[in-house]
Amino acid sequence: QFGRAIGSFQALQHRMADVAIEIEMARSAVINLAGNLDSPDRDRHVSATKSLVGRTARLVAEESIQMHGGIAMTEAYALAPLARRLIAADHRYGDEDWHLARFIRLTA
Description:
By secondary structure, this protein is mainly α. It is built from four helices and no strands. The longest helix is centred in the N-terminal third of the chain and has 26 residues, at 10-35. The mean pLDDT is 88.
């Protein structure tokens, strides 16, 4: 805003830190899944990871648009197609809600 870098605002720094933590949790879930691909509980791990990654992708897309003041929704801005791709990826092979329900069903 007014010639200052967007990352210089403390409130946005806190939001970016929260998003970074969520991304690291999703990365850890993927690493955990990779270690359990030969496990009998593989399907449960797949659903847990897909649910978490889908939730994180949606959070990243929404927060990045919000932090850029909505300008990220314009086609001229490089973030718009990335945000759409993140949200669309959640719906491939079952969305976050479907995998959460599957995880609960497999855990019970």
